[in-house]
Amino acid sequence: MQARGLTTWLGAAAVVAATAGIAAAEGEISGAGATFPYPIYAKWADAYKEKSGVSMNYQSIGSGGGIKQITARTVDFGASDMPLTPDKLSKAGLVQFPAIMGGEVLAINLPGVAAGGLTLDGPTIANIYLGKITSWDDPAIAKLNPGVKLPPLGIAVVHRSDGSGTTFIFTDYLSKVSPEWKDQVGEDTAVEWPVGLGGKGNEGVAALTNNTAGAIGYIEYAYALQNKLPYAKLVNKEGAALMPGSASFQAAAANADWPKAPGFYLLLTDQSGKESWPITGASFILLHEVQEKPETAKQVLDFFAWSYANGTKMAEELAYVPMPESVVKLVEASWSKIKDGGGKPVWTSQ
Amino acid sequence: MTLYERRQAANIVALTLSWLATGVGLAILALILWTLLRRGIAAIGLELFTQTTPPPGSRGGLANAIYGSLVMTAVATLVGTPVGILTGTYLAEFSRGSRLAPVIRFVNDILLSAPSILIGVFVNELMVVRMGHFSAWAGSVALAIIVVPVVVRTTEDMLKLVPGSLREAAIALGAPQWKVTVSVIYRAALQGMLTGVMLAVARIAGETAPLLFTALNNQFWSTNMNAPMANLPYVIFQFALSPYADWQQLAWGGALLITFTILVLNIVARVLAGWSNRTP
Amino acid sequence: MDLAVSAGASGGLNGRRVQDAAFRGTTRVFAFGVLLLLGGIIAALATGALLAFSTFGWGFLTSQAWNPVKENFGALPAIYGTLVTSFIAMLIGIPLAFGIAVFLTELCPPRLRRPIGTLIELLAAIPSIIYGIWGLFVLAPFLQSTVQPALIAVLGPVPLIGFLFRGPPLGLGVLTAGIILGFMVLPFIASVTRDVFLTVPAMLRESAYGVGATTSEVVRRIVLPYTRVGVIGGIMLGLGRALGETMAVTFVIGNAHRIMPSLLAPGTTISATLANEFAEAVSPLYTSSCIAIGLILFAMSFTVLAAAKLMLLRLEQRAAK
Question: FRET pair for A324, CA 20 to 30 Å: which of A32, A213, B67, C119?
Answer without folding.
Answer: A32
